[in-house]
Structure formats: structure tokens, C-alpha cells
Specification:
mainly alpha; 77% helix; single chain
């Protein structure tokens, strides 16, 4: 497998940023690594799909793919934490406070519905729509040479 110099330099700079964050503040470096590793894997998948389709990626395009993957990873992690937090809060509310009015019941059960069904569906949609790289189209070949055109 051939590795381009631009890909190697991008990987080296990513490792350097992660090492600097770990040295500066260890939990921040660990969080960066947790988000950066899946983003790096997605960038490798996109580059491999483009290579198979015979469409080369520039270094700037790889950086753009990595940044977009990083932001998508952050959104998915935040939504997952939000869903878990809402589920825990709603479960605690059901245990702590007896619900007496219908409005209170509707609010709590609606929050449980959002936490249990809607947010996981949104997270799954985000994952499959934005995270899975799509194969680029192969360049179409002409049926006849260009000098036959009028």
C-alpha cells in the first residue's frame, strides 16, 4: 500500500496536536483522541474510496474531510450525552415527584419519549447520512474521441 507524503504529514500534525493537548491538559487530550480517531478512520475511508474511483484527493480536501468528520463526531457525541442525560433526569423525576396533574404527566412522558425514541433516531440518521462515506462517481469515458466532435 502506498502512502502519500501529504497524508503522512497530516497524520504527523494530528499526532502532534494530540500530544500537545495531552501535555497541556490530559483530559482534553484524551477527549480529542476519542473524537479524532473515528474522524481519522473516516478520512482514510474517504481517501480509499476516491483512490478506488481513480479520483485523487488533495491534501486540502483531506483536511476538509477530517474537519467535517470531527464536527460530525462532536455533534453525535453531544446528542448521545443529551439523550442519556434526559433519560436519567426523566427517570429521577418519575421516582422523586408524584405526578398529579395531567399537564405534569404529559410533560414528563413527552420528555421520556424524546429521550428514548427521537434522539436515538436522530443520532442514527446523522450517523448513516453524514458519517458513512459515499463512493465518488467514476469519470465517464467518452464514446468517441474529442476530435470527432463538430
Amino acid at each position: 500500500m502506498q502512502v502519500k507524503l501529504s497524508s503522512l504529514l497530516l497524520l504527523t500534525s494530528l499526532v502532534g496536536v494530540a500530544a500537545a493537548l495531552c501535555r497541556l491538559f490530559l483530559p482534553l487530550g484524551i477527549c480529542f483522541g476519542v473524537v479524532a480517531i473515528p474522524s481519522l478512520l473516516r478520512t482514510v475511508l474517504v481517501a480509499r474510496r476516491h483512490h478506488q474511483a481513480e479520483a485523487a484527493l488533495s491534501a486540502m480536501h483531506k483536511v476538509r474531510v477530517f474537519v467535517v468528520s470531527f464536527l460530525i463526531s462532536l455533534v453525535i457525541i453531544v446528542l448521545t450525552l443529551l439523550a442519556g442525560f434526559l433519560g436519567v433526569v426523566c427517570a429521577m423525576a418519575l421516582q422523586a415527584v408524584p405526578l398529579q396533574t395531567p399537564v405534569e404527566k404529559i410533560i414528563v412522558y413527552f420528555a421520556i419519549f424524546i429521550a428514548a425514541f427521537v434522539l436515538p433516531l436522530v443520532i442514527t440518521w446523522l450517523f448513516f447520512h453524514y458519517w458513512i462515506p459515499k463512493a465518488p462517481e467514476k469519470p465517464r469515458q467518452r464514446r468517441y474521441p474529442i476530435y470527432y466532435r463538430i
